Amino acid sequence: MKAGESIFGYLARTRGGFDLPRYRQLIGAANAYKEGDEAAGLAAADATSRANARLLLRNTRIGELRAHPLFVDGLFTLIEQGVDPARAASLEDWKMGDLVDFLLEQPEEAIKSCMTGLSSDLIACVVKLLSNEALIAVSRKIFNPLPGSKVGARGYLGARIQPNSPTDHPDDIRWQVFNGWAFAVGDVLLGTNPVSSEVESVRTVENVLRDTLETFGLADVLPHCVLSHIDIQAEVEKREPGATALWFQSLGGTEGANQTFDVTLSKMLAHAAKRTGRYGLYFETGQGADGTNGHGEGFDMVVHESRKYGFARVLAQYVAQARRGAGKPTAPWVHLNDVAGFIGPEVFRTREQLVRCGLEDIVMGKLHGLTIGLDVCSTLHMEVNLDDLDWCLEQLMPANPAYLMALPTKNDPMLSYLTTAFQDHVRMREQFGYKVDDRMWAFFQRLGVIDESGRPTEHFGDPTWVYLQYRKRKGDVRSNEDILAEGRARMVEVRARGVWLAEGHGASTWELNPALEREIRTLYEDAKKSLFAELPGTFTDTLPGAVAVATRSEDRVDYILHPLSGEQLSRSSLASLRALRDAQAGQYDVQLVISDGLNAWALTDEGHLAPYLERVRTELTAAGYKVAPQPIVVKWGRVRAGYHIGEVLYGSLPDKHSHRAILHIIGERPGSGHHAYSVYITAPTVGTWAQEGLVDHDITRVVSGIADTALFPSTAAVATVNILEQLAPL
């Protein structure tokens, strides 16, 4: 490159004009290194190349970047509509370096005056040019609090309590809320990730959360939400008005990525236009999700992530417009959670990368005008352990995100990943001086877990004390001793279902009690071993008629680090499947597929797989389905390997309108101690199976958390067939 040269000058000199693939590479090369960009061919070759790409970008005019979008689809067009054209025009002659200097030198008021004129792609480009220290400096200037609250305000750090249960058991969910409040944690949202996305199951969980808030008089202070698909939440609200509060949806950075979530632009705009109540919309995103779902479209993860925020900004504008039309204040209750680290090592692997990703995303979210929180998390197959997460929090907290996740321990009992514990919040408050939303802090004082000065009382860290207050508010006239005894018995039952509750603390109030700390570390060690467990060589022999196949993964390490290798079948396996297809001659409409996934022990533990297979075959036959007698066993298999099997078995059948199903049983992410597995249920028509690559997650349903200590295999089998009957009725 030459001194002062811009990206477009460089392209003109070296390529003779604009070159879109090379342009995307240059924009991607300006990123901090991440494995996901490397897999897409967009990472810089070395530090010098990265520095040069950043210099080119810094010298490029904003107007030129705006005139050359990296990728155009309906979502890009929509998010561009969310940009203020007058503000955008005033910035066109700035170079990107000017914008960087402006953000670092100017106060919040000046920055907010131009934020509305910044497109999502520009916001993505600017964070590429900022060091970690500069990202923190910018983030500490910009705050977008939720209306009527201090959530997202300067000096405040909120908490989304995430009361997940392996079985969606109401007591598991309610007691985790009590647990958080016992530590004076939980002021943003009570948000549960459901095991079942059945409407009635989601409604049950919604009402557990709703009841808890209403009993304590908090329904107007913070919302509740069940993180099922937004269509399911809408159906729950239709059946029982008032059952839902805040509506959730995961977002992608392209139209194609959103379709993976069964989301369309028109659908989301229609939902946003109906959100006229107190609470609007809640979104979750994360770098790398688009590429790992096959929708990278040739541009990098940071730009993808920023476009998700642009989508959220437009949807927030629609919520504001809907409220205005209803004669209500226009400020919308819309916020976003960046789940940084949930996907795995194919996106990025180290604690340093997790910090970088979190800082980039906080700044991008804030520059979009969003209230943005962080799920500072790690999957068990990443190189980020329990202690590393503590370090990451310390690096990220100076940037003052709006909130963090909050669970009894760092280990989620259902999703099996590592995130933020209740007592981490206590530590961050103590270390950085952050506050809890004023209204909830006053509630915690009334609850009696902190005193008037905000210091812990004798009831701090005691969930049974919160349960006592709950029962008293319900009109329970029993003695305190009787209610507390009942509470202790309920906690034992919750723990027996594999849900950890944090009671008391260690030497400091922000430390887990030592016994629980040891248990969580034992689970972590078990998870690391589970990841590398293999199905025994005799496994296929235990399943009558089973057909053994394998994916293209070279070994277990390749399978873990490169998910695409576990999504496609080896050449010899394809030949075996074609032979099976010819032998079956289209006479079966359900095929059982069994994969080791990320935890082979989930299939080999006693009482796990056999009871499920026996019951599901019985239920399928009783429902009238014809089940292939030969189960297919996949070595190193991921979910999409099941779709590939369906294409081979069903795609060439003559009756294009008949439904054919794959029930894919696969070991889940370890970490919960349950050694659980999931069943992915996919049942489109033969005509759909015939179109290679068309079948994907958007038309698949799942039953998860199956184990003898979680969702019982026989119960899961019944649920599987119930879902199949909805997808492919006979």
Automatic annotation (TrEMBL):
<dbReference type="InterPro" id="IPR009246">
    <property type="entry name" value="EutC"/>
</dbReference>
<dbReference type="GO" id="GO:0006520">
    <property type="term" value="P:amino acid metabolic process"/>
</dbReference>
<dbReference type="InterPro" id="IPR010628">
    <property type="entry name" value="EutB"/>
</dbReference>
<dbReference type="Pfam" id="PF06751">
    <property type="entry name" value="EutB"/>
</dbReference>
<dbReference type="InterPro" id="IPR044939">
    <property type="entry name" value="EutB_dom_2_sf"/>
</dbReference>
<keyword id="KW-0456">Lyase</keyword>
<dbReference type="GO" id="GO:0008851">
    <property type="term" value="F:ethanolamine ammonia-lyase activity"/>
</dbReference>
<dbReference type="GO" id="GO:0046336">
    <property type="term" value="P:ethanolamine catabolic process"/>
</dbReference>
<dbReference type="GO" id="GO:0009350">
    <property type="term" value="C:ethanolamine ammonia-lyase complex"/>
</dbReference>
<dbReference type="InterPro" id="IPR013785">
    <property type="entry name" value="Aldolase_TIM"/>
</dbReference>
<protein>
    <submittedName>
        <fullName>Ethanolamine ammonia-lyase</fullName>
    </submittedName>
</protein>
<dbReference type="GO" id="GO:0005829">
    <property type="term" value="C:cytosol"/>
</dbReference>
<dbReference type="Pfam" id="PF05985">
    <property type="entry name" value="EutC"/>
</dbReference>
<dbReference type="InterPro" id="IPR042251">
    <property type="entry name" value="EutC_C"/>
</dbReference>
